Structure formats: structure tokens, C-alpha cells
């Protein structure tokens, strides 16, 4: 009998358990069974992957970039969600505020999410610099309300939006998933408008070390990609995990975060 592949994931919300139980049940019917281990933060998870305690880790983009740095590029990305390939950062302000571009932030107050959130803290600084704005040109407030989870909970982004509504900031940088929730009316409907959206970049990916052989990895990836949105048994898991298809990773989509981590001298280890 094939030993299960052990996969690490960070427990950023109560939904994580049913997602992984559903995935475990799905893979139990394939040639590549799995089990999972939950972590409280990505630092512990990456350490476990590199030490060999895990076969795979479900990593954020920052966890991927840091794993690459810590392994001198020896790790490899195996698969992502379709939604991971088109992630964006959205800059928002109160409706009617008159912001039209990143240049509108000059001399104004911008609130960022947790310092380890790529979408709500690290990449926004990178995009500001690309637009010719230094940190001295914009008054920055950082809200570190879910450090360790790389912004997965969305809590710091919600706290940032509240800071704008409370007039403690003029604008906020948030992930596109939070912005889409606002657009669907799930969060603060009508309270905000977007004034700049970043280019697409890559987010989460399954990460493996060289110790996971191609002979074990490739069949598992094939079974993962075979999950079908139209299959009523697969769809609930995919809905909870926020995708319609598993896809190969887009490694070039990490270039902006690699540049941002280097520019901001973010340490490769926690």
C-alpha cells in the first residue's frame, strides 16, 4: 500500500479543516493518498518542509519566495489554484474621495495590512516605489493583526478598511479577494471605490523539496488537476478553497514579490 503524502497547511480559519478532510477523502480514492498537518504560521510550516517532516506545503507567495531563498532554489512549485495566477492588489478610498492614481497618495495617509502580507503590505510598497513615491511621500500606517499567516485571514485588511472609515487613513491597500467581497455586497457595500489596481501576480502554490521524487509527485499532481468543478462531489471542496480548477503554477508571477522582498530587505527566515 502506498504511504500517504503528508501535506502542510496553515490553519488560518475554521474552514481549513473541512477543506483538507475533503481533499483527503478525494485522494483516498486515487493512487496517491494524502494526510495533512496544520500549522499556526508559515514559518513553522516552511521549516517542517525543509527539514523533511512534510512531503508538500501549501504555501503563500511569500512562503514560496522564502522557501526558494532558504533552499537556494532547490524547491519546486507543483500546482496552484486558477485564482492564484490572477491575484492583484487594489488601492481603495472612501467613495467620492477623488483619488485617481497612486500619485494621488502623495502627502496623504495610506494604511497597510500585516507586515507579512504580500498583497496588503509588501507589494503595495513595491508598487508605490515603481510609481515614483517613497515612503516619505506617503504617511504609512501598518496594522499587524494577523502576523504569521501572511494575510490569509483577511483580518488586517478589514482593520485597514475600518481605519479609512474612521478617518485614521485616507486610503488602504487590500487583496483582490477582499475587494471582490466588497463588490458582491458581502462587506461594507458602497463605502469604498478603487482608484488603482496592480498587474496580476501569483499567489499560493504547492511546494516540494527534491526529496519528493518525480515518480511520487507527478501522479499526485495529475490527480489534483483532475478535480472537476462540474462534479458535485468535488465542487464543495473547490468552492471552500476558492477555485474552479487546479492548474500548473506560473513562476514568472512571483517576480514582483521577489523584487519587493529584495528592495525592502525582508529576511529569508522568520
From TrEMBL:
Pfam family of the protein (one): Phosphonate-bd
In terms of SUPFAM superfamilies, this protein maps to:
Periplasmic binding protein-like II
Print the organism lineage: Bacteria, Bacillati, Actinomycetota, Actinomycetes, Micrococcales
What this protein is called in its record is Phosphate ABC transporter substrate-binding protein
Amino acid at each position: 500500500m502506498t504511504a500517504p503524502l503528508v501535506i502542510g497547511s496553515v490553519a488560518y480559519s475554521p474552514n481549513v479543516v473541512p477543506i483538507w478532510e475533503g481533499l483527503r477523502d478525494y485522494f483516498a480514492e486515487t493512487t496517491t493518498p494524502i494526510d495533512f498537518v496544520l500549522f499556526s504560521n508559515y514559518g513553522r510550516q516552511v521549516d517542517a518542509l525543509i527539514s523533511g517532516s512534510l512531503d508538500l506545503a501549501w504555501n503563500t507567495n511569500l512562503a514560496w519566495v522564502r522557501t526558494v531563498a532558504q533552499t537556494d532554489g532547490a524547491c519546486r512549485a507543483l500546482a496552484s489554484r486558477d485564482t492564484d495566477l490572477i491575484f492583484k492588489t487594489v488601492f481603495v478610498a472612501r467613495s467620492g474621495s477623488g483619488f485617481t492614481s497612486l500619485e494621488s497618495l502623495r502627502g496623504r495617509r495610506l494604511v497597510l495590512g500585516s507586515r507579512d502580507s504580500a498583497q496588503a503590505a509588501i507589494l503595495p510598497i513595491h508598487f508605490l516605489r515603481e510609481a515614483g513615491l517613497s515612503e516619505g511621500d506617503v504617511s504609512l500606517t501598518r496594522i499587524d493583526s494577523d502576523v504569521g499567516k501572511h494575510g490569509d485571514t483577511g483580518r488586517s485588511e478589514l482593520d485597514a478598511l475600518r481605519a479609512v472609515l474612521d478617518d485614521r487613513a485616507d486610503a488602504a491597500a487590500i487583496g483582490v479577494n477582499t475587494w471582490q467581497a466588497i463588490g458582491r455586497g458581502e462587506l461594507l457595500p458602497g463605502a469604498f471605490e478603487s482608484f488603482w489596481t496592480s498587474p496580476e501576480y501569483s499567489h499560493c502554490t504547492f511546494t516540494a523539496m527534491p526529496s519528493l521524487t518525480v515518480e511520487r509527485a507527478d501522479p499526485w499532481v495529475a490527480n489534483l488537476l483532475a478535480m472537476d468543478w462540474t462534479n458535485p462531489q468535488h465542487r464543495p471542496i473547490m468552492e471552500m478553497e476558492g477555485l474552479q480548477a487546479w492548474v500548473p503554477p506560473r513562476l514568472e508571477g512571483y517576480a514582483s514579490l521577489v523584487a519587493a522582498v529584495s528592495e525592502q530587505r525582508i529576511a529569508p527566515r522568520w
